[in-house]
Specification:
With 165 residues, the chain is an alpha+beta fold. It is built from four helices and nine strands. Helices cover 29% and strands 31% of the residues. It has a nine-stranded antiparallel β-sheet, with helices on one face.
């Protein structure tokens, strides 16, 4: 029993088989790509940990009972709501990336030390900021992991006076 199709019929068979192959390749590549890149979304400081102080290398926010005080070596620093920085550090989820990013020579590096309750050593974070590319990466030196941060969120994590200095 032979299948007899006209030239137009065979063309339709070829077109549909090509479309099927394209869909198959597209689906399998998406499936393999999603399994190979594993990113997690988490805040820099776990919400279960209590932040005692954040040292921005020139400006320090310290817990004073239930309130916060700001100590600054920068005379133009004006931080009126230090609690907002603390909440951002413990609640803002960030995307963890697999490996260290490639950055240009124009990028600046700002170290930040976070002191947690019950810990004898501070957690060190390095903010790598490239104003030209408008990219920000955070390296958690304690856990040796990298996070990507939107450039528009930078001033929620670090005071403007530190970044623009």
């Amino acid at each position: 029993m032979a299948i007899r199709l006209s030239k137009k019929g065979w063309n339709n068979v070829l077109i549909f088989s090509c479309m099927f192959m394209i869909l198959l390749f597209n689906y399998t590549s998406n499936m393999f790509a999603s399994n190979s890149v594993k990113t997690s979304i988490q805040p820099l400081v776990e919400s279960s940990q209590l932040i005692q102080a954040i040292d921005f290398s020139g400006i320090e926010i310290q817990r004073l009972g239930a309130t916060w005080r700001v100590l600054s070596k920068i005379p133009t620093a004006n931080i009126t709501q230090p609690k907002e920085f603390i909440e951002t550090w413990s609640k803002q989820p960030l995307e963890q990336i697999e490996r260290s990013p490639m950055v240009l020579d124009s990028a600046i590096s700002i170290p930040v030390v976070v002191w947690l309750s019950g810990k004898s050593e501070g957690q060190i974070y390095e903010f790598v900021i490239d104003h030209q590319e408008q990219s920000v990466y955070i390296h958690d030196k304690t856990k040796d992991v990298w996070f990507a941060l939107k450039y528009s969120q930078l001033y929620q994590f670090i005071p403007r006076e530190i970044v623009d200095a």
